[in-house]
Amino acid sequence: MIALGYSREIYESAERILLERRKSAENTAAERKSVFYGCYPEAKRIESALSKTAIAAARAIFGGSSAKEQLVKLKEENQSLQNRMNELLASAGRGADYLEPPYSCKKCGDTGYIDGRMCSCMKKLLQAQAYENLNKLTPLSLSTFESFSLDYYADSAESGQKSPRSMMEKVFRNCQNYARGFSLSSPSLIMQGGTGLGKTHMSLAIANTAIQKGFGVVYCSVNNIITKLEHEHFGRDTQGDTDRLLLDCDLLILDDLGTEFRSAFSCAEIYNIVNTRLMTQKPTIISTNLSIQELQERYTERFASRIMGDYVRVLFCGRDNRLQKRLRNLT
To answer: How is the chain split into domains, by residue range?
Structure first.
């Protein structure tokens, strides 16, 4: 059975993870029993007796008029055996559930289903796998606040203005505070500035922090995501669920807005994503080389108005860091 809205690949990946969790929990229980029964042989005899009472109870159900009396007696015997087992566990400093498999999800026993209905743990795992699948080409692990350097920003000011480094120090602190305090009610951000000024690095650092806090994050270049949406929309990817993931994730980061091929489809999709997430109050971070005027000209005045009215602007300044790094490596 395939979960509605997810591809077979994502579903099978979630199933494999659940199977590994289940096997790990059951192996742990088997190891605990082996050690515990070695120290307390009586416990092994009790487990064998409990198994026999369970079989006897099943047979008693079909035993006719005396079934009720037999079941009462077996229930009392079973309870007595369980009480003795708990006494042995307590004497060893263990809880009553020590010999049970320590499943990650107590509700479904890491099967993913309860009475044929999908468990909440399975739903969360499917969503997490979908986010991971969408983010798999993104170097999330390579960009953190710790690896961000202010050394490439000039420390000298011009025309009485603050130096690029001092302005970027403020940007750095603000982004770090945003990441630390990130919640579902956090504001949306638009990072603006020229090429190579650290917008992608900073947004990835925020993504990393949000992921570590347990939020579902989708990070994507606008160019790649529009291509993927086109394939799904026009039938080349019939199992796609990208549009829903973009709208539902806790934090969406759209990198390099304005670099995608401009078309009626791309403009409509971008507006729909931005507008829908604003309407549902889900935070989004956009990075772009375009000014507000250029956004208005490339997309629409309505789009630029939504950005100006509802996004917090984060302005990056300085000279192309990537170029400066290459020049330093040559010297």
So the answer is: 8-122, 137-330
CA distance linking residue 266 with residue 225, whole number of Å:
10
Query: Under DSSP, is residue 298 helix (H, G, I), strand (E, B) or coil?
Result: helix
Q: What's the CATH fold of domain 137-330?
A: Rossmann fold (3.40.50)
pLDDT band at 178 (very low <50, low <70, confident <90, very high): very high
DSSP assignment of 28-44: HHHHHHHHHHHH-HHHH
pTM: 0.66
How far is Cα 217 from Cα 220, in angstroms, rounded to an integer? 10
- Output the CA torsion 6→9→13→19 (10° steps): 90
Which pLDDT band holds residue 219 (cuts at 50, 70, 90)?
confident
pLDDT category at 330 given cuts 50, 70, 90 is very low
Nearest by Cα to 203 from 243, 143, 270, 263: 143
Helix (H) or strand (E) holding 246: helix 242-248
Q: Is the dihedral of CA 121, 122, 123, 126 positive or negative?
A: positive
Q: Reply yes or no on whether the pLDDT at 202 is more than 80.
A: yes
Dmax (CA) for the chain in angstroms is 101
CA–CA distance, 138 with 278 (Å, rounded to integer): 24
